[in-house]
Design brief:
Helix content: under 10%
Shape: globular
Structural class: mainly beta
Number of helices: 1
Order of helices and strands: EEEHEEEEEEEE
Radius of gyration: 14 Å
């Protein structure tokens, strides 16, 4: 059973925008402690981009703060990532994730989607 399905990736020029979507199964959406976006560029480790907690609190990596906006539509069980002012260094595979349980106060991400590719050209 597929529980996280990303879409919305593509190729844009620097300065452009994209909006990623992640459809989440209803059971995952309602039970997780947080939903988040991660990315992985070729040859690099996966890095956290942004997350939204069950109380609606949002968090961003310094590298995307002010440019990316995470949001969710509870009626559609969908997570979004609006990406503006894109830079070539934002090029990566983007994954959404869901977490359960906490370690050190942080929600532990345990379920991942298959990813959607974002390519930003200069």
């Amino acid at each position: 059973q597929v529980q996280l399905v990303e879409s919305g990736g593509g190729s844009v020029q620097a300065g452009g925008s994209l909006r990623l979507s992640c459809e989440v199964s209803s059971s995952t959406y309602s039970s997780s402690c947080a939903l988040g976006w991660f990315r992985q560029a070729p040859g690099k480790q996966r890095e956290w981009v942004s997350s939204i907690e069950t109380d609606g609190s949002t968090y961003y990596a310094d590298s995307v703060k002010g440019r990316f906006t995470i949001s969710q539509d509870n009626a559609k069980n969908t997570l979004y990532l609006q990406m503006n002012s894109l830079k070539p260094e934002d090029t990566a595979m983007y994954y959404c994730a869901a977490g359960w349980g906490r370690s050190g106060g942080q929600c532990v991400y345990k379920l991942w989607g298959q990813g959607t590719q974002v390519t930003v050209s200069s």
